[in-house]
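STRUCTURE:
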């Protein structure tokens, strides 16, 4: 009986949502997004609750944000948001977020606070484009330049350095430079065994750094 009564508020919340599935226009890969109106952070997932996750903010890349921890709300009903279950606890991500400015009447039920639209001051993560990139050891993985729709990760591509992504966000690097950095690397499996391949990779990354410095000088 206890389980039934605790589920009733959640059932009413879900029933209040429109029945159709999420529908939105594909807004493109990471370099095709309009990044100016968003809060962009690098953070680590601390916990999950319902359709939300708490993110420890490691660095603010764009926007004004002063909290050390924020709550990010994901998919529920027909909302076109990312599924928070895809972001494992302890994993690190660059996220392009939208602030929740207002909550619809059905959006928050105090009886089911973890399943809702979200609260004013929290954030939401869209899935209508590549609004997140996975971070590991200073590099980011995700669809940076592929034109395919609803395509979030190309495992054949190379991770792109966080510094280069930050330069792109700041307007100091262009799409072509990111595409060059993400191009598949030949001989990747032999990298640790073949000194020549390793040196070629170092030269390639040095070349990218020099191009970035050249772009900065022209701004």
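SEQUENCE:
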């Amino acid at each position: 009986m206890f389980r039934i009564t605790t589920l009733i508020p959640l059932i009413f919340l879900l029933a209040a949502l429109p029945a159709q599935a999420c529908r939105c226009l594909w807004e493109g890969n990471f370099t095709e997004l309009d990044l100016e109106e968003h809060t962009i952070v690098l953070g680590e997932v601390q916990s999950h609750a319902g359709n939300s996750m708490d993110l420890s903010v490691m660095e603010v890349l764009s926007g004004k944000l002063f909290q050390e921890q924020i709550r990010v709300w994901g998919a529920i009903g027909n909302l076109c948001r990312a599924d928070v279950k895809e972001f494992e606890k302890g994993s690190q991500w660059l996220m392009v977020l939208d602030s929740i400015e207002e909550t619809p009447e059905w959006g928050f039920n105090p009886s089911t606070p973890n399943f809702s639209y979200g609260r004013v001051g929290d954030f939401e993560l869209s899935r209508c484009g590549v609004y997140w990139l996975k971070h590991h050891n200073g590099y980011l993985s995700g669809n940076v330049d592929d034109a395919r729709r609803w395509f979030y990760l190309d495992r054949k591509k190379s991770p792109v350095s966080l510094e280069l992504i930050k330069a792109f966000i700041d307007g100091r690097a262009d799409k072509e430079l990111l595409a060059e950095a993400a191009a598949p690397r030949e001989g990747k499996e032999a990298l640790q065994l073949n000194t020549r391949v390793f040196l070629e990779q170092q030269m390639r990354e040095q070349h990218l750094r020099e191009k970035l410095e050249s772009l900065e000088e022209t701004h």
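REMARK: Confidence is low (pLDDT under 50) at residues 1-19, 187-198.
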